[in-house]
Amino acid sequence: MDIQELCIPGHSCPDAGAPCRGDGLCAFIVLDFSAVIHSIDELETVFDSYSPSLPDRRIREYRLDRMRLILEAIGNPERSFRSYHAAGSKGKGSTCAYLAALLSGYGRKCGLYTSPHLYTVRERFTLSGAFFSDDEYISAYNSLEEMTGALRLPEGYGPERPTVFEMYTAYAYLLFMRAGCTDAVIETGLGGRLDATNTLSPEAVILTPVELEHTDVLGRTISAIAREKSRIIVEGKPVFISAEPEEAERVFIDEAARCMAPVHSLMNEVSCLRSSTEQDGEHVSFILDGREFRLTLRMCTAAQAGNAALAVLTASRLGFLSDEGIRAMERTALPGRFERRRLNGRLIVIDTAHTANSAAASRDAFLTLSSGNPVLVFGAVRGKDIEGLVRTLFPPFRRIIISRPGTYRESDPGAIYALATALFPDKDIRLEEDQDRALDSALAFSSDILITGSFYLAAGMGRLKEADGA
Questions:
Q1: Is it the case that residue 189 has pLDDT exceeding 50?
Q2: pTM for this structure?
């Protein structure tokens, strides 16, 4: 703890009851500067001091009230830039990154807030994919701490101090304001209705595909989950909808009608959408307003074709589509989104696929690039459609290692192992809960490796930081 004792001339010293001499020798005020950070290494860990979530389900209903109080305490920085708000079960991070690239290519200074992070917490808060300077990160946190250090939320609202996601969100907005961002693309965390990000007044809402996920919190049907996500729609602002299950699309259109918000549908306004995975990236083509677009994306899978097309549709309708933006979008990559690396001469693909459809897209793209006999490393947290993921991913792989995707969210690797061995008794399936040992076991097979099922799985594999980009 860094304690500084200060003597202020003209005041009485509490220990002596006499006027302060002003010579700095009679200290009577103690200031604690322990919350101040001085390096990026400290930024990596400082958020961990906040509680991970709101523990009581009933308390979650106060989440937006909590977030509004936090934002008021820091001067409502979210009002200083134009925002674009995205929710969905899959693809929202990539779609946000593409949209931010299009905004930047058009000449806007665009912040990008996504979650979670894989290698560094800075991944959550970027300037359209590039990091801010270290000084900007550090000074923004110190300013946030200065304004919220004494903040205590009302009794009955849950923990009196902000949660980690509330602080991440407040920090993102403050950082973007201090950096002079004109625009910011914001990805929701879990859900939408009660998400801490749902305190924005966005220029537009983007809704990516919905699947069964976080069923313990969001609901056990596609309609229930879509309803939670639809509540980021705001009155009169355009809504951009990706290819959706019929029941999700119906919920989104009904909510947009209730809010008198114009709807733009990828399926209705974009035609001839095709893609193929090649060694140099995902080759994508589609037609919008009579113009044919041909792109080569760094992030592979057929799902990325839909994400890119949705971003282009959004930019076109909002008036910031440009050739430079398209080129910036083609260069866009996010850690853990079909990220290709090489370690010990082996191709390693890290993908955050955590729904059955996204897992199928990841599987197919990986097998197109792999040289044969690949290994799957899989881990998933509770609340996912684990059986659907297992049935989708496992068939083409002969060797499979099941691991624990960190401890941030609850998981049961033993139960996944039991399910997998029951479904596929002829496969070589192993349980290695430690993430680094799971990677070492996979590398021992001298084969290409797909790591997927949860973002948190690869995040705990320290050796991946040594791998080269592929």
A1: yes
A2: 0.88
